[in-house]
Amino acid sequence: MESDTQASERGALPQLQPLDASGTATLYLNRAWRFRGEIWLLTQAGKPVGMVERTAGRIALRTVSEEWRGGVRRRARRLGWHLRFTRAGGDGTALEYNPPSTLLRGGHFDVSGSRRYRLRCPMLRADWKLAAVPRGEISRIGARAREPWRVQLACINDVMDEPVLVVVVLAACGAILTHDEQPSSSA
Q: Pick from 5, 15, 24: which is nearest to 49 by CA?
């Protein structure tokens, strides 16, 4: 059986596994390789459970059972950007991320108007926080340069009832990557 690294050298995408609710609540996001863009793998106990694939202006989010496609869009009649994803099956479900302004990092996710999540930027060197509204914090994302990102889920049994949990975590990672690419407003 070939490893994911060997598969990546040939350009094949790894087989994703379902998130294990009985396992550890610590996940890691690693830049896996460049293949027609940039691939980031979300792993649990060394097994890939999700993927963020970034190409020119497009972002795909994948789990074992779903694929969402979207990308960065400029806001109409306003400065700034937002992310919008739809399921690849085209059932109309949308996931949208809106930063509050061009100067602030963080923002809100809306899943077809039925669920809402909040992503908060770290103050100084703390982790990004992802919270379900109104339930509260579901994840902390330690986005560090040149290291795998540590994604700590709050008590995994409590958050497993979130129907798009892995997709929202992947979308949050995509939003953090997008925030990091924006030009500095202090220049």
A: 15
Assign residue 90 the CATH number of its domain.
2.40.160
Q: Which two tokens stand for residue 34?
A: 């460049």
Range of the domain at 71: 4-181
- The helix (run of H) or strand (run of E) holding residue 88 is none
5-15 confidence digits (pLDDT tens): 444 444 677 89
Assess if residue 47 is contained within a domain. Answer: yes
For the full predicted model, state whether its pTM sits above 0.90.
no
Under 8 Å between Cβ of 171 and 94: no
- Residue 111 placed within a domain: yes
